[in-house]
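> forwarded from #structure-qc
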């Protein structure tokens, strides 16, 4: 079947992944509306290709050329869609930039997303791993999302429960993987806003600024300042933020490890399990600041792997595997990567 879609072939993805690794897509389609997704579904040749739904490319590791169709989601639009006694409901299209969306909500006087300022990427990708930072996850103010189901061609609305959010996890990494395209996300931003100051970094930054009663904007500014100091800017040095999830272990494992490593950073979880700081484990194995070929471990944060210039996705994957092996050998803890490997 012929189609009028602006598909490009053998398309470079180098500028479209924040690691800045060189890889190409067999076919590439910038998507600005849902009708184009339906057209892809109707086109036998395009529909037969493996698919990659791409937002800002800030949570993927391209280890090879992608042998299929990249759908680069650029659907735009932000609007307030409702209000009740408890919340203001704001809907953003999947192709909106996450940080710009957060700033938009703050400019409307709506708090709730400020701790998630400056996380790279798109609104549509935010639910995929339930993005989180500084004590907040999007599930905390998530209301619902609309998705396009590639298998049926239907548009569905999923509420919070249906998304099955967990720590850097959701149904989109499991049952709906490779099937759902998030079209828009609706947030319920609280009428009675309360500052989330669970993270010492944030309270210290506010104190340094002489702020004791912070507004959502104050918290956003503090988070932006902290993140700018701690994390490499992908425009300058390729990276995908935290490369590993913080591993979750049992209290018994934690106790055994503390016998050997009394300084070990650990956080008790409400369900009795314990989260370890992956960055601390990696640092203890001596990886911080090291380089392997053109891939490396960021000097200021052992959890961040970087492309020092010209690294391939395989270089970065090999470095990650070496780090995983060291941490497993020393601590008997398995580190799980956060970005999606392709
Ligand atoms: C410097 C830096 C700091 C970071 N800090 C944080 C942090 O503090 N907390 C955090 O949680 N993450 C963080 N990240 C990771 C990343 O920003 C988030 O995971 C972000 O949500 C990814 O968005 P993206 O649009 O770039 O997704 P992409 O990398 O394009 O895609 C990621 C995954 O989502 C899927 N996807 C993308 N868009 C859609 C859609 N519309 N529908 C269905 N599936 C889709 C893709 O197929 C892929 O599986 C950081 C990354 C960097 C580079």
């Amino acid at each position: 079947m012929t189609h009028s879609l602006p598909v490009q072939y053998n398309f470079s993805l180098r500028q479209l992944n924040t690691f800045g690794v060189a890889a190409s897509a067999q076919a590439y389609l910038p998507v600005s509306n849902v009708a184009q997704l339906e057209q892809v579904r109707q086109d036998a040749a395009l529909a037969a290709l493996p698919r990659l739904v791409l937002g800002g490319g800030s949570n993927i590791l391209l280890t090879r050329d992608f042998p299929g169709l990249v759908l680069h989601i650029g659907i735009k639009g932000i609007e307030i869609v409702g209000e009740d006694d408890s919340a203001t409901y704001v809907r953003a299209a999947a192709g909106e930039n996450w940080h710009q969306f957060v700033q938009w909500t703050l400019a409307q006087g709506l708090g709730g997303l400020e701790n998630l300022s400056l996380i790279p990427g798109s609104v549509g990708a935010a639910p995929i791993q339930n993005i989180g930072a500084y004590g907040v996850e999007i599930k905390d103010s998530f209301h619902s999302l609309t998705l396009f189901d590639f298998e049926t061609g239907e548009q569905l609305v999923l509420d919070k429960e249906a998304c099955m959010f967990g720590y850097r996890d959701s149904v989109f990494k499991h049952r709906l993987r490779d099937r759902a395209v998030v079209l828009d996300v609706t947030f319920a931003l609280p009428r009675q806003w309360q500052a989330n100051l669970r993270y010492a970094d944030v309270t210290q930054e506010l104190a340094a600024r002489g702020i004791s009663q912070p507004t959502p904007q104050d918290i956003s500014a503090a988070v932006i300042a902290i993140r700018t100091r701690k994390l490499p800017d992908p425009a300058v040095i390729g990276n995908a933020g935290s490369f590993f999830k913080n591993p979750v272990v049992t209290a018994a494992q934690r106790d055994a490890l503390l016998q050997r490593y009394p300084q070990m950073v650990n956080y008790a979880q409400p369900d009795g399990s314990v989260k370890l700081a992956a960055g601390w484990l990696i640092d203890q194995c001596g990886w911080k600041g090291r380089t392997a070929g053109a891939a490396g471990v960021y000097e200021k944060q052992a959890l961040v792997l970087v492309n020092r210039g010209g690294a391939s996705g395989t270089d970065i994957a090999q470095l990650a595997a070496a780090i995983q092996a060291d941490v497993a050998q020393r601590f008997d803890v398995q580190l799980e990567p956060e970005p999606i490997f392709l």
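QC bot note: The two ends are 29 Å apart (CA to CA). The pocket of flavin-adenine dinucleotide is lined by residues 18, 52-60, 73, 94, 119-122, 124-126, 128-129, 131-133, 172, 180-182, 231, 234, 239-241, 340 (CB under 6 Å).
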